[in-house]
Amino acid sequence: xxxxxxxxxQNVAVEGHAAEGxxxxxxxxxxxxxxxxxxxxxxxxxxxxxxxxxxxxxPVFFHQYSTDRVTPFCQHFGVCGGCQWQMLPYQKQxxxxxxxxxxxLTRIGKINLPVILPIVGSEREKWYRNKLEYTFSTREYTPExxxxxxxxxxxxxxxxxxxxxxxxxxxxxxxxxxxSEALPPEGFGEASVLGFHAKGFFDKCVDIKKCWLxxxxxxxxxxxxxxxxxxxxxxxxxxxxxxxxxRTMQVRICTTGEVMVNIVFGNESERxxxxxxxxxxxxxxxxxxxxYTINVKxxxxxxxxxxxxxxxKGYVIEKLEEFQFKxxxxxxxxxxxxxxxxxxxxxxEFAELNGTQIIYDLYCGTGSIGIFCSKxxxxxxxxxxxxxxxxxxxxxxxxxxxxxxxxxxxxxINVCDEAFFExxxxxxxxxxxxxxxxxxxxxxxxxxxxxxxxxxxxxxxPATQARDLALLDAKYTVTKVQPVDMFxxxxxxxxxxxxxxx
Length: 502
Known about the structure:
Elements: E1 8-13, E2 16-17, E3 23-27, E4 30-34, E5 42-50, E6 54-64, H1 90-109, E7 131-141, E8 188-197, E9 205-207, H2 217-231, E10 246-253, E11 259-265, H3 270-283, E12 289-294, E13 308-311, E14 316-320, E15 323-327, H4 337-351, E16 358-362, H5 368-372, E17 379-384, H6 387-399, E18 405-409, H7 412-415, H8 418-424, E19 429-432, H9 441-450, E20 454-459, H10 462-472, E21 476-484, E22 494-501
Parallel strand pairs: 4-6, 11-12, 16-17, 16-19, 17-18, 19-20
Antiparallel strand pairs: 1-5, 2-3, 3-4, 5-6, 7-8, 7-10, 8-9, 10-11, 12-13, 14-15, 20-22, 21-22
């Protein structure tokens, strides 16, 4: 069989959007999934995978650009991988996300569906995240051969074009282009950078000057820390050699005005650590809680480490409606606060609460959904496998004076037995918000066994949600479907489904 990398398909017309941010074309009965293009582009595609019925590839030459293209607003677009769709107008992004939900539920679920409600877009297209994590690195990712002219519509890390569009027109115009035979080879230089991992690389980072995802304060803090570290010869972390002082940094900015920064150090150097922390404390009075964590492990995860308080109370308070949530450096919380409020309101509406129901909140995490729905419920029972998250849920219930919320640690399959139901009551409403992998088959079977009158399924992956809905179809009917966009300029999509017992 010929090497896939030697196969180039010419003059391929991109027809539509596919899952995971790819677009698709059809050629001789085969579906071609293509990265870094949008419907309306006409491209030559170099294949990276070639199966009987489908193939994957990336563009090496553009014959025509889609009229839907607009100029990305971020200088790092296409390099850091944080945003995939800045070259599309936001309304067009929403159309593709809506179609993604429709396709998943109809093609994978293959069940009877009501009319799918129009997607709820984010009111803020920029500055919408409350949390970002940055990496200090000695390995900077840079495109090996940047284009001779900067074309903001096509990321320079992806392909080089000699002719650029009319900058007075937001739409991308077609024209003659210089061929670029392939994606540039990955590059890195010995440097000291602070930013995001380059797409596809665990050890190479993009030095971020300005990120549009979080309040501009994050740029001030990040750039100030980088500059101080460079001026004072504080070493950045080399992930391959596992050495260096500065490793990662988390910034959380709440709608309440509280700001938390946790700086992770790669060794025990007290002198360098104190020098940086004192600088941060005095230079950024906006930070209400400053912490540090020492991580000498081989991986960047801090879930099994204990952050230390340098200044402040060690946590921040965020609000959804009138509900307050205590968030520590290891707590999970929805990263788009304003849109999370809308997501939870729809979830509460789908639960059809009247004050008499018992809610079971499965995969409850830190209890945010259950607490948000608590005023309309007789009782809230949350079940979560992570003990630390359950402790956060208890604290959040206390913070909001909610006495009818109870949280339990363990696998729902083991927790929800007959003795548990006899003590707490069977649920009238089940709310489930699983990770991207969806629900375990045994949990689906458990829900079918419980036979709660209403199930509200919140999902961050319509494909696995559709798979689970097909199984639940044995006893449940899908009565409402509401897509919600939590992350503008990315391919991620949330979807809320209401099911009622047949």
